[in-house]
Design brief:
By secondary structure, the protein is mostly helical. The chain has one domain. Helix content is 60%, strand content 0%. The longest helix is centred in the middle third of the chain and has 18 residues. The termini are far apart. It holds the Pfam family DUF5133. InterPro entries: DUF5133 (IPR033457). This is DUF5133 domain-containing protein.
Amino acid sequence: MLMAHPAVLRNLVQQYETLRALNAEEGSPEVRQRMDDVAYTLCVSTGTRDVDAALIAARHRLPGARVEDDSLVAN
């Protein structure tokens, strides 16, 4: 499987978290589409099927991630 560069993963995670913080699900169709696009790209980049798993996998691949990081625990 191809692995996305950590800088790409970091950018995608930041974009997704920003959109989620801005409550993009309730925004305009364009904003919702952007959130869906970022979620899809995260899934493809991490080889996962849902955005929560993709976020965990992406964070795990970032420099400095440790096994005991909270980012690796599913909520």
